[in-house]
Amino acid sequence: xxxxxxxxxxxxxxxxxxxxxxxxxxxxxxxxxxxxxxxxxxxxxxxxxxxxxxxxxxxxxxxxxxxxxxxxxxxxxxxxxxxxxxxxxxxxxxxxxxxxxxxxxxxxxxxxxxxxxxxxxxxxxxxxxxxxxxxxxxxxxxxxxxxxxxxxxxxxxxxxxxxxxxxxxxxxxxxxxxxxxxxxxxxxxxxxxxxxxxxxxxxxxxxxxxxxxxxxxxxxxxxxxxxxxxxxxxxxxxxxxxxxxxxxxxxxxxxxxxxxxxxxxxxxxxxxxxxxxxxxxxxxxxxxxxxxxxxxxxxxxxxxxxxxxxxxxxxxxxxxxxxxxxxxxxxxxxxxxxxxxxxxxxxxxxxxxx
Length: 354
Known about the structure:
Layout: H1 28-60, H2 65-86, E1 89-97, E2 110-112, E3 118-120, E4 127-130, H3 136-144, E5 149-154, E6 157-161, H4 164-172, E7 180-182, E8 197-200, E9 211-212, H5 224-232, E10 234-242, H6 257-267, E11 271-278, H7 280-288, H8 302-307, H9 312-326, E12 330-331, H10 335-349
Parallel strand pairs: 1-11, 4-8, 4-10, 5-8, 9-12
Antiparallel strand pairs: 2-3, 5-6, 6-7, 10-11
């Protein structure tokens, strides 16, 4: 779209925020059937959401993590799938990139302790770095993981969301909901937990055509414990919404939540979800390889990271791996570009889709 060119990335020309669905027009038949489709979906969606709310809040009162994960797997995982199905998701698959087993990567649990030496990793919580497109991202993770917590990082700091419901509300734009915990000085809880930690480093939702550069790594407290948490048992996952014949998709970038949900339920025919992931062994093999190459052909080895006084190097490599595995370019746009786009979108479209 010519009038949104100002929001495109300078180096790639990609516009991270303009909705892909905004470039198509619905047929007369789809417009005529949209009300019926919306009503039918709402009949199934309403009780599913009530059950999701009930069980998520009930599990939040459970103190022991192991019991939480069991209850979450029994009740919430299935409900999350039902909600996704009602919203048009007919298929979900995950492709995991793993490292070949060899003598060179059998001890990949050795990590940096920040003092130039190695620290043998003990039990470490699973940390998953994810791209960010919509509140449906949270539904995806609550349908495949056991009661995850969520971290959102932006220029104002690091926020922890203690369950999937609070994470979904945050993704919808309710950034001051009761479940938001601002971590003082960006200090993460490094204690072991069976609950996975999903980290969104991007400052804003995108349309899925790219990954926003991680501009706020410095907001995370840089200690040896945090470095161990973010490298010992880390994976990356990139969610791709394949819209098929749908003219509308889950990607939420326009800031108008009520209209977005109405159009999702009215116009989505179906879509498929493909999750491209890199396992911890794959990432550690890249970190420990002397020939690991970045976007500009620079190398980052384990020795380089050992000498580093910050986590910048390891996180830069993790994002580079995420981009290569997903096939998506990394662009420099951030929250300022997203905010400007939303304001311009509302001004030029009066809250309506193109």
